[in-house]
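lol forgot to send this yesterday, sorry. struct tokens for the thing we talked abt
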């Protein structure tokens, strides 16, 4: 497992080197439950279900392509799936709870509690810097590791090794030839309902962007992002933070001491907008990739070499201080992010583009699209996860117990609301997990300062345009298979209910669109956190 981790494979044991929980300016080793081959532990419970059968077929097809002996394929895969199903049963509580209990302890103590895994050897193999038995590790879900050591001890060694190799093959199959690609696409068709695949050129662009994002971003920013866009985004984010200070003053459920600390946390919250300045430094950019050596006729070897180098680079930071100037997201990827260990919001250049944002758009459209995303990321600093981290990103209890109780009660209103939503898929009604809605509660974004342009041909006010653009953010077209998978695996609710649930609670929306009192989009009882 330690050797496979060198190539960015987290199998059975999940581990990384990341910001220290109680001193976020330094790094620490973290252990947590690893992901499974299927995206949800629930999919292993029904052995006749579509996902399970597709996964079994994927195993058989890949194994045959690798020229395994036909006489043993079925028996080996049956044992392998039985092992992974048991692993899924162990993982399931942590997947369902959205987290795991946390504790720190020296490696020596972990070895006493989970003795059948040689932790020092594993970490010495996985981390390219010296590791001592007295070093501390942060453990998310100690019971998981106690249970998996028992499972491994009860399982034939051949089966465990086969599982490790299977997951490595599964992780790397997208870097193999067209035969493996065809099998993978058939699997995705069953899991997500995808009818066609991306052209080869797009796969190549995506792969390079995901793995060498800074190099791609330098080209992208040079051609598609300018200072005017950055300046307008900075002003918009500053306005929204000012609005959030007012909200903190108004909410009745937060005590005064917690309120003061929350305002401090919001005030010092950093934001990375567009791209880092060092992206334009050619020498610094070259240095980022100086450790890599590629050969034009050895694609797979290039991938393996890249994975080992990039993993080693991350893991070797163990005894370094966190560089707060270093970006945590890639500018050429469309994704905003809040990093709770750094109290930092990131809005890369690729997300600050049409149709979400433009320096030439009226405020109603920019605030409805990107503004609502800014509000969403901002409140991550104060949600059920963010409230455990202070203004420096350190894990600390800084909310008063009474405030926590009132926050949980407010949040439960939203959970109950979303729990009542259903999606009809394949002639069955499926419930939405209300726990996924807790960051959808940022209501007050009426920041349309002064008169602004309306859109010709549309008889809509600025406020109506704001809400229309917010709704367009979450337009989705999903297959039934993809919807079922999303309900099990996504961290957020599907787009349609994300819009309905948020606007259902908005008095401003009801006024803008003249929704009658008591109507579906203007209920008498509304849920409100912020």
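and heres what i got for the seq, position by position
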């Amino acid at each position: 497992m330690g050797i496979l981790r060198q190539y960015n494979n987290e199998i059975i044991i999940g581990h990384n080197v990341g910001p220290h929980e109680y001193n976020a300016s330094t790094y620490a080793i973290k252990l947590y439950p690893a992901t499974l081959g299927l995206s949800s532990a629930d999919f292993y419970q029904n052995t006749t279900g579509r996902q399970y059968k597709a996964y079994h077929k994927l195993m058989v097809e890949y194994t045959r392509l690798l020229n395994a002996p036909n006489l043993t394929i079925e028996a080996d895969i049956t044992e392998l799936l039985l092992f992974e199903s048991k692993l899924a049963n162990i993982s399931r509580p942590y997947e369902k709870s959205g987290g795991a209990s946390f504790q720190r302890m020296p490696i020596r103590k972990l070895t006493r509690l989970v003795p059948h895994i040689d932790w020092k050897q594993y970490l010495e193999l996985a981390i390219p810097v010296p590791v001592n038995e007295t070093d501390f590790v942060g453990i998310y879900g100690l019971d998981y590791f106690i249970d998996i050591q028992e499972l491994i001890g009860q399982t034939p060694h051949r089966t465990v090794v086969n599982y490790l190799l299977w997951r490595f093959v599964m992780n790397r199959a997208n870097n193999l030839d067209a035969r493996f690609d065809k099998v993978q696409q058939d699997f995705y068709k069953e899991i997500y309902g995808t009818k066609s695949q991306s052209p080869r050129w797009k796969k190549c662009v995506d792969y390079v962007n995901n793995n060498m994002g800074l190099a791609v971003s330098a080209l992208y920013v040079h051609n598609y992002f300018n200072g005017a866009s950055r300046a307008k985004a900075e002003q918009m984010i500053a306005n929204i933070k000012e609005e959030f200070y007012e909200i903190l003053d108004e909410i009745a459920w937060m005590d005064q001491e917690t309120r003061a600390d929350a305002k401090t946390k919001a005030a010092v919250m950093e934001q990375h907008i567009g791209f880092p300045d060092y992206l334009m430094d050619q020498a610094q950019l070259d240095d980022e990739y100086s450790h890599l050596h590629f050969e034009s006729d050895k694609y797979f070897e290039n991938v393996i070499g890249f994975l080992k180098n990039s993993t080693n680079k991350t893991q070797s930071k163990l005894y370094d201080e966190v560089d707060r100037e270093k970006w945590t997201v890639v500018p050429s990827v469309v994704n905003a992010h809040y990093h709770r260990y750094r109290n930092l919001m990131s809005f890369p250049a690729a997300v600050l583009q049409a149709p979400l944002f433009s320096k030439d758009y009226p405020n109603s459209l920019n605030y409805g699209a990107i503004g609502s995303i800014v509000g969403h990321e901002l409140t991550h600093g104060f949600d059920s996860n963010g409230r455990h981290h202070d203004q420096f990103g350190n894990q600390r209890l800084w909310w008063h117990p009474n405030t926590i109780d009132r926050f949980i009660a407010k949040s439960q209103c939203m959970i109950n609301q979303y729990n009542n939503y259903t999606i009809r898929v394949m002639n069955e009604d499926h419930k939405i997990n209300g726990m996924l809605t807790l960051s959808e509660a940022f209501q007050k974004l009426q920041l349309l300062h002064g008169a602004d342009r309306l859109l010709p041909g549309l008889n809509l006010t600025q406020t109506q345009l704001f809400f229309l653009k917010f709704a367009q953010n979450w337009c989705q077209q999903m297959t039934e298979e993809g919807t079922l998978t999303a309900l099990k695996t996504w961290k957020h609710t599907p787009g349609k209910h994300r819009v309905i649930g948020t606007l259902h609670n908005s008095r401003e929306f009801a006024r803008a669109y003249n929704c009658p009192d008591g109507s579906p989009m203007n209920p008498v009882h509304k849920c409100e956190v912020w």
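The longest helix spans residues 70-97. anyway ping me if u want another try
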